[in-house]
From TrEMBL:
InterPro entries, A to Z: Aminotrans_3, Aminotrans_3_PPA_site, Class-III_PLP-dep_AT, PyrdxlP-dep_Trfase, PyrdxlP-dep_Trfase_major, PyrdxlP-dep_Trfase_small
Protein name per Swiss-Prot or TrEMBL: 4-aminobutyrate aminotransferase
Names of required cofactors: pyridoxal 5'-phosphate
Keyword annotations: Aminotransferase, Pyridoxal phosphate, Transferase
GO molecular function: identical protein binding; pyridoxal phosphate binding; transaminase activity
Pfam families linked: Aminotran_3
Positions of transmembrane segments: none
Entry similarity comment: Belongs to the class-III pyridoxal-phosphate-dependent aminotransferase family.
Length: 433
């Protein structure tokens, strides 16, 4: 098929429900750049939604996967152990945010891993209900759709969804303040009130602790707007969980694997999850996800009740081992913090600037998980996004708020970051003009 016909073919034959930022057809990727079939080289500040964290086609990851393809592609976890699977466990064990997290189960996608965590929580506690945060995203399967509270589009017209899911506000009071009220007249500066109190009330009014298996939380809200919680919030959740024998499940699918400048986001607040959910960056683009918990909990599940044909694929696991090695050898976290500071400084400078500042409502985030929330109601984020695209840069929006998110590869070079900052600031300036 001729290159010029590819996008048209895709629009005709690929499911509309997917939805796309663009109709570019990607052909190759290297480091922080992707190249389209039309030969357009674009700076990728999306990392395929926080997945290719070590850049596209990281040489060591590619080599490990290529070697594994020639050795063993598929073993099947319900038949036997697979060498790369066990090597991945060995690589991840010392990276866990708490030593109690010592028993793993690997899946393919983030959603499947979230569902595996729901199964674990129900089975281990013999309780059914779960609590999620408003604004959270956990996936698009039937179980996870019920848990996803970032945008109604994910669940609209797909009901009935999994029952037994309750929600409480995630603390980002700025989102609730006056400028976001529908008519701009209300002055509820603190309308989400105390989110910990809300949780306590929920456990009294709607789902009793004796019926509640787990609280699921993204330590940094992802699709809900790149919102880090205030200090003390996750510790308060931990306390409530301990008090009521409820499991604390941290979904680090988006914020984990170095994205926030620590290996896992919970480390910023020194909180111990009962279950940690991983995906995206774990294998730099190969389909792989997983949960980790303590053996005592995981061993409660009946043998055979977990598993799946492709779960913990050997090639993906081999890629994951190479990712873990690269994190150490290439001092990835140092780069995240250095490049993250450069980008955040630039965004904050645009916020302070008398001309561009009027477009900006908030700059937030940790490491290279950064957001620029625009002044509501004007569609600025999509305008800036479109300008970036014109300048050969891919960026994403997030949440119901007019927010751009920046998630470049964690090993982005200083030069590529400088190029990215220039495009973003030029785009903001042009929209402000
Ligand atoms: N949890 C979180 C926090 C996510 O950000 C995502 C994906 N954006 C998922 C779960 C679902 O992962 P997947 O798309 O791989 O199913």
């Amino acid at each position: 098929m001729s290159v010029s016909k590819l996008a048209e073919f895709g629009v005709k034959h690929v499911a509309r429900g997917i939805g796309r930022l663009s109709n570019h057809v990607l052909e190759s990727g290297a480091g922080s750049y992707v190249t389209t079939t039309e030969g357009r080289k674009m700076l990728d500040f999306t990392s395929g939604i926080g997945v290719t964290n070590l850049g596209h086609c990281h040489p060591a990851v590619t080599k490990a996967a290529q070697e594994q393809v020639g050795t063993l592609v598929h073993g099947q976890v319900n038949i036997a152990f697979q060498k790369p699977y066990l090597e991945l466990v060995e690589s991840l064990l010392p990276m866990m945010p708490h030593k109690s997290l010592d028993t793993f189960f690997f899946w393919n996608s983030g959603s499947e891993a979230v569902e595996a965590a729901v199964k674990l929580a129900r089975h281990a506690t013999k309780k059914q209900n779960i609590i999620v945060m408003q604004g959270s995203y956990h996936g698009r399967t039937f179980g996870t759709m019920a848990m996803t509270r970032s945008k109604t589009i994910y669940g609209e017209n797909y009901a009935p969804l999994m029952p037994g899911v309750f929600s409480v506000p995630f603390p980002y009071c700025k989102q609730c303040s006056i400028s976001h009220s529908t008519d701009g007249k209300f002055g509820f500066e603190n309308c989400c009130m105390d989110p910990v109190l809300q949780l306590e009330l929920l456990l009294k009014r709607e789902t009793a602790p004796s019926d509640t298996a787990a609280i699921f939380v993204e330590p940094v809200l992802g699709e809900g707007g790149y919102v880090p919680p205030p200090a003390g919030y996750l510790a308060a959740l931990r306390k409530i969980c301990d008090k009521h024998n409820i499991l604390l499940v941290c979904d680090e699918v988006q914020c984990g694997f170095g994205r926030t400048g620590k290996m896992f986001a919970v480390e910023h607040w020194d909180v111990r999850p009962d279950v940690l959910i991983m995906a995206k960056g774990i294998a730099n683009g190969f389909p792989l996800s997983g949960i980790v918990s303590r053996k005592e909990l995981m061993d409660k599940q009946n043998p055979g009740s977990m598993g799946g044909t492709y779960a913990g694929n050997a090639v993906s696991c081999a890629a994951g081992v190479a990712v873990a090695k690269a994190f150490k050898e290439e001092k990835i976290l140092d780069n995240v913090n250095a490049r993250g500071a450069e980008l955040k400084d630039a965004l904050q400078a645009a916020w302070k600037d008398s001309k561009t500042g009027k477009l900006i409502y908030d700059v937030r985030g940790l490491g290279l998980m950064l957001a620029l929330e625009c002044t509501p109601g004007k569609g600025y984020a999509s305008k800036i996004q479109a300008k970036c695209m014109e300048k050969d840069m891919l960026v994403l929006t997030t949440s119901i708020y007019d927010t751009l998110r920046f998630i470049p590869p964690l090993n982005i070079t200083k030069e590529d970051m400088a190029a990215g900052i220039k495009i973003i600031t030029d785009a903001i300036n042009e929209v402000a003009a």
